[in-house]
Every structure is written in C-alpha cells, then in structure tokens.
Amino acid sequence: VSASATDEGNRVVVIGAGFAGLATMRALTGSGADVTLVDRNVYSTFQPLLYQVATGGLNPGDVAYSVRGFVRKRHGRFRHGTVANIDTAGRTVALADGGTLDYDYLVLATGVTVNYFGIPGAAEHTRALYTRAEAIALRDELMGALERVASGRGRDDLTVVIVGGGATGVEMAGTVAELRTAGLAAAFPEINPARVRVLLVEQGPELLSPFHPRLRSYALRQLLDRHVDVRLNTAIRKVTSDSVVLDDGETVHSDLTVWAAGVAAPAGLKAWGLPQREGGRIAVGHDLRVDGQPRIFAAGDIARIDDQPLPQLAQPALQAGQHVAQQIKRLMDGQPTIGFRYHDKGSMATIGRGAAVVELSNGAIRFTGVSAWLTWLGLHIVTLLGGRNRISALVNLGWRYLAWPSGSGVIVGDVTE
Amino acid sequence: VSASATDEGNRVVVIGAGFAGLATMRALTGSGADVTLVDRNVYSTFQPLLYQVATGGLNPGDVAYSVRGFVRKRHGRFRHGTVANIDTAGRTVALADGGTLDYDYLVLATGVTVNYFGIPGAAEHTRALYTRAEAIALRDELMGALERVASGRGRDDLTVVIVGGGATGVEMAGTVAELRTAGLAAAFPEINPARVRVLLVEQGPELLSPFHPRLRSYALRQLLDRHVDVRLNTAIRKVTSDSVVLDDGETVHSDLTVWAAGVAAPAGLKAWGLPQREGGRIAVGHDLRVDGQPRIFAAGDIARIDDQPLPQLAQPALQAGQHVAQQIKRLMDGQPTIGFRYHDKGSMATIGRGAAVVELSNGAIRFTGVSAWLTWLGLHIVTLLGGRNRISALVNLGWRYLAWPSGSGVIVGDVTE
C-alpha cells in the first residue's frame, strides 16, 4: 500500500459475513480498496435453509461456508470477532477482544435477530432459527421430543407451535408437518402421526403477507392439507415451558415453541451510538449511508430506509451490498453517492415436497405447485456459495424428498431430553 | 407373541448399536427372536471415519445413522438409554432412567473407550476420538487453534500431538499433516504451513504393529514425507494443558493433544458384576458367552477371549455379532453352542490422499499406495450403512481429496477459543 493510497482512504471494514457483507466484499474486489471482513463466526451461514437443518434434512455443514476461504479469493482480510464499539470521530472499530480496526469506510451488515416484543416467557421458552447453533439446538430438541414419544415413556403426544406466518414460519410448519406424515414412518414407526400436532400462529389476517393473495391462499391450503392447525388473527399473550397462551385466553399445550416472528437489532448494537429506527434497525438514507455518518453504510436486514422498507430476504441484501460497494468506489473517486433502487427479482417460499409459491419480476409471473417447488430447489442450490455444499445439499434434499415415501431416515445428533 | 414362544425364551436384549450389536440384530431378523436394541444414542456411529469429522472432511451426519430406522427394518425394538445394572439371576437389565428389560439372552456390545493408563493429566488435557461428540469437539478445537494462528493474535504456531501409533493415530496424524500442506492454503492462507507441527508418539517400536513390516515402513515413510514428527519407542510421562512430557524427560509444547491409545471398558461396566480381563474387557469363552453366564454373550471390542485376542476393527466385531446371533438361534433350538473363528478378511489404514496400506486374505495379498487408497475409499463407502450417507460421504471425501490442491475449504463449526 503506497502512502498516497492510504491518504485517499481505502481501508474498508465490513461487519458481518451474511448476504450483504459478502456482496460488498465481492463487489469491492479489484477496486483498490483494502477490505477487512469481521464476523463473530468463522463461517457464513446460508440462512434460508436453516429450517432444513432444524428438521434433519441437511447437515449444518451443508449451509455453512468458511469465511476465510471466501475472503482469500477476494484478496481481503478476515477478522474473527464481535464489535464492542465504534468511534466515528476517530474512525475506529473496537472489538470485544480488545483489538481495534481503523477504517475509512465502514459497512454494517450484521443482520438481525429475533424480536420477542416483550411477550412474557417468549425469550426463555422458545427457540429461534437465525443461526446455525439455533438450528442444531432446535433439531436436537425436536428429535428428542419425537424420541420421547416413540419410547412410550412420558407423554404419548407432541405439539409443536410455530409463531409467525412469514416465510420461515410457513416453511418450518410445512416441513415439520411433512416430517410427521412422510418421515415418521421410517424414523419413528412407533409414533402415530395423529399424536403429533403442528400449530402455526400468525398475528395478522394472512400467511406470507408480502405475496399475492392467490399465492397466500395456496400456501394456507397446502398447510391445511398437511394438517397444520393454522391460527390467523391470533396474537400470543404468554409462553411457558409447556404452553402458549393465545390472546383469546386459550392455553395451547406446546412441547416445542419456535419463534419465527419479529426482527430486532443485535443486543449490543445500541452501544454503537448510531441512529436507529423501529426494532433498533439502523437509520440509513437512500444511498444506504447511516444518517449523519458520511463514511458509514448499512446494508441488509439491519438497515432501514425511512420511506422505503425492503423485504428481509437474500435478494435485497445482496443488491444493497453491491450498492454500498459502488458508493464506496464513487467516494474513493471523489464522486457523490447515488440512491439505491431495489430490483424485485421475485420471492419464493416452500411448504413441502412439490409445493411452493414463486413470484417473479415484480409479481408479473406467479406460480405454485411442483414447478414452483423445483424452481425453489434449483435456485437455492444454485445460490449456495460453495461447490461442495451445492452437491451435498442436492444429495440430501433429493434424498429427503425422493426417498421419504420409501422410508429414509433423518439426520440426527445428540437429542435433548 | 404366543405363550409357548415366551416359554421357549425368545427375548433378546442387545446392548450397543455399533458394528457387533447391529450385526447381531441383523442376523436375528426372521429367526423368531424378539430383539430389543439399547443404546445411549439415537444414532449409530461409523467409528472408522470419525477422524474425517475431526479434520473437517465429513459432516457428523455423514457417519451417523438413525438406530430406529435400522431397527424398524429388522422388526425389532429400540430403547434409548444406558445400562445401570444387570440382574443375572432375574434375567433383567436395569436402565439408568429406571426402566427395566427382561431377557432370555443378553448380548453386550457396548464397545470400549479410551484408556489413559493412569498417566497424569491425560484425561483432563487430551481429546479422544471414540464418539461423534468427541470428533466434533476435536474439530472445533483444531479449527479454533488454526483460526488463532491465522488471526495473528496469540502464538503464531500450532503443535498437534497425537498419542498412539495404531490405525486411528496414523490416520489422524496423516490427515492433519495433509490438512496443513493441502488444506491450509485454501482455508487459512495466512498460516505458514511450517508453523504447524504434527507429532505422533508411539510407545512401541513400530506404527501399525498388526500389519506386515513392509506396510509398517511404508506408513512411516508416508508420514515422514508429510513432515510428521514420528517418535517411536516413546512413552508419555505426563500431559499438561499446553505440553506433553516424554519419558526421556523432553517437554514438547502441545496446543492440542489427541489420545488415540489404549482400550478400556466403559466406566459403569464394573458395576454389572461380570468377569473382566485386562482393560476391563468382558471375559468370554470361545463361543463368545460370558464366563459363567450361559445366557449372556459379549461381542466386539468389549469382549475378550482368553487365548485369542482379536483386532479392534469393524470386521471382527461384525463377525462376532453374527456368531452370537447364530448361537442364540442354536440355544433357542436346543442345540449346543459352537466356537467362534475369526476369518481375517484383511485390514487397512489410510495415511492421506493416494496413500494407504491394505492387507487382504490373512496377509496373502498386501499393497500400498494409490490402489490401496482407492480400495480403502471404496470399501469404506460401501460399508457405510445408509444410502444417503454413502453418497454424501463420497461427495465430501471426493471433494476433499480432489479439490484440495485447487483450494476447497473445510467443514467448520463454532470454533473453540
């Protein structure tokens, strides 16, 4: 690095190795920027398939990628750690382990975590599905509960309650329901599928609210076909270790409650002293710069443009990450930033084997059923970063959906009692 | 079950879902025996490939199989639990959770665990490689140590000491050494391979002592080629959190010590009140019945015939499990038992890519190198029980050995600091 390059300010620090952070780094490759990627894990997680890990369909290793391997190809640096504080005046990021990183441009792409909305017992008695570790814990608890029913000791039934009717909740509910009908016969032949109950609770009047009404009703029908007890317009009042209390006063027994609702900033983010909007998300302008911070950008789920809410999906995060990289290049070249425009390439959600909903090109193309499901399968496999994971996930998902009827097992770990 | 069948005594309880226990159950299918398989895990582990999990080459799910799925195909029962006690007079197995199982024939196939030979610090400061959980812990610690070196914080070198020059020790040492030369460039480009040191310590004068001298010297040469520091005729005096003290007084710094030596019965086995031989292994006669117990058999690593020691490998365990099943059928038919004869189909060990040793047909056929390695790869894939795991392991191992030079990553989890 020559002195002049440093004077121009080419040090970029990216916090978070999710879709947005990796897209930023990828788009900065070869730009002359000196990029350091920071993450609390040494791997990047492919979040859209975590529910497959949680239901024993994929290995944790199928949806995780070495960050160092990625960074190496982009000629950047990786720093394993968590951010403790940001000194915006001194342009320094302080890490929890005492290290510091100087930056000329800072990109915040931490992602978000679950929001319990202050509902009593939710944080203590539910499981979330944002991280690899959470997905493994959920899988081990689900398999432990099935093992308990199969053993004939303790309760002879199992109720799984899923809170939140967005993509994660719908995919999780559909997969658990299908595990019951197709998977139990092979892995837990002792269990009467009728003794396993799946509830999906959604506060609003619709599942998958960002989708077209036709797709929403298709998803609902598919879940009902799989005997999911769907409760719309139903809020949660309280969660205990073995129940969920609904807002109409009904107490539903629950052996395992999955929290797939709400979005909140990571706990430590408040200490960074940046402007926040609802749910603690970072306030950014149209160019994705943090309000009042000309050298700090935010992208992905953690960023919130005031009048332009973006769906919390991979595509907006990838596009925002690319946009941030372009703005940093512009600033390094002495040009002004320009505004971000999200190109809606479409969205999709899967309910089970042969059942998914797909919306492409701003809703101009919509379809459901087997073709949608194959589109989902194909795009998720293609989008998976690494070659090994692509093949491995294809094998495991193919096995799951093709071999279930003839009786294949699930991926199991040490079950939770 | 008719009254007469019960009177004849057809209840078989098999403790342990390893090679021997599964072979017993498989061979009893259709015999009229009422078989219950007991294991502390809900999965069976393919132990010969655990070192691949420990080095990030395979997913834990690639070497684990749902026991219930297996048991279902054999029309038996599965009981998740651990044995607390055996009442030989009352023919009852007491489980740790308070349950009991009545038996007419009992098969003990628990496998063995590590033996520290009372060496100070060994139990506290080393990692073993007998279980899936141990392999994951070892992987996360190894990757954490590599991450520490790559980060440039703390010590800038890493020493892995492997104790025991049997198949597990040789395979582990070879794979860590190859991870250093071939894998580091991709996953941890910051690490100078010369700063990663691998030591293999063996008390005896030879590695792989059951093999022919030509194969032993091949294995040694392959490890030396991979820059493994092999110490033969070297015993361990003491282990600390960051060192291994050798019997000549030398203290070797060690960041990670792997204990791949010695065989001992599981801790709780002594309480069962059965006759034991060296290492706590259960004393059995030539028909594999426990001394003095006409209705109790032992098979696999846990069984010890007085004058006929068997190698601790998959083949002897599989054959012993089959033999036990045959003897139970003979006893159920009112026939006397017959003695077990081990048919040595051969043994093999792998050092790294394109390097293995294979001995077939009682040593009549011996070969090394690429052909041996392909034989090892083929037989391990074929021997893997489940169809999904067979393909998944083939993909992952194929990827590891074909893509390493061009730079593939490793399977990572939450690293241990």
Count of alpha and pi helical runs of chain A: 11
**First-residue to last-residue Cα separation of chain A:** 56 Å
Name the poorly predicted regions of chain A: 1-7
How confident is the prediction overall: mean pLDDT of chain A?
A: 89
Spatial strand order of the main sheet of chain A: 5-2-1-9-18
Please report the total strand number of chain A as a whole number: 22
Major sheet of chain A, described briefly? 5 strands, parallel
What spatial form of chain A do the alpha-carbon principal axes imply? globular
Global Rg of chain A = 22 Å
* Category from helices, strands and their pairing of chain A: alpha/beta
**Beta fraction of chain A:** 15-25%
Oligomerization status of the protein chains: homodimer
* Helix coverage percent of chain A: 25-40%
